[in-house]
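In this section we walk through a basic example: taking a raw amino acid sequence and producing a predicted 3D structure, encoded as discrete structure tokens. The instruction is simple. Fold the sequence below.
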Amino acid sequence: MTSKTIRAIVVGGTGYTGAELVRLALGHPSIELVAIVGNTTAERPVADVLPSLRGVFDGKVEPFDPDSITARADVAFCALPHAASAEAVSALRERGLKVFDLSADFRFHDRAVYERLYGTHPVPALLSDAVYGLVELHREELKTADLVAVPGCYPTASTLALAPLVREGLIGTEGIVVDAKSGVSGAGRGLSETTHYPETAEGVRAYKAGVHRHGPEIEQELSRLAESPIRITFVPHLVPMNRGILSTCYAEPASPGTTAATCTEAARELYAGSPSVLVLDPGDHPDTLWVRGSNRTHVAYTQDLGTGRIIAMSAIDNLVKGAAGQALQCLNVRFGLQEGEGLTATAGWP
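The resulting token sequence is shown next.
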């Protein structure tokens, strides 16, 4: 375990995810936040861009300068859009800095899958260096990773619910349906008609049904566990709240012995000792309010008494366990800290 203070810089620190990283890093006992780097906000006072930091973090948002960052930091968190993040990550890795990237740029092992979803990859040579940062499934690899691809929010919630069942062969690998609902902050801080308050406040809508980019990310992780290809039907929804994801997944039991109780037992075995995943009792129903603002995941299982289908559910805060908190959890593992260090806060209530 390290006793050294870890100097960190957040690149893209003024968006929702970056700001959450800043907030959590400032409260982490082993991290010194050296600087906040931005693009369109560069040279503006931090307090103007992030008013919540007034009296807490002085100075200006800095422009991206990989030499300056490398000279002053041990690690960089990159919270930039895809493609832009890849180029920044490449510059930092060339200089030997450890990087935790929150974009999609290094999440896929298969370059063809990435390019089908996001377009030409700017630095494909780095794909093989990245470790997927879902700690509960990749803890050992993360201990030596210098480039960590922090998972997407929907894949985090959905994979954590389904992973124990796939791992233990409790469900069939065909016909899996993932129905997930997210708060509006998942769309980022930029202005958009579809996330404008009057457009979201009184309705719930599905979007990008069957074609959302996070579907293949979930498939990648489940296929790795199953050691064979898995395809899912993934339908995300936008709901009128700021934070949170509730993922409800449906699957056929692999045998008559698969019940909510056996699924719960498998999940408790996989997540034993995790500071971030709590497996509820069979039949309980997770609520995003119970994890809001925390790095916690609530997972639960039930069974449809009419059809026998298994229903796997999980709730996370999309900005914390779905992004910034998960990045810090990865850092803790990489630097030999307690996995939950700096991430013990419970949800705000009510």
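Looking at the output, two observations stand out. The mean pLDDT is 95. The first helix runs from residue 16 to 26. In the next section we compare this with other chains.
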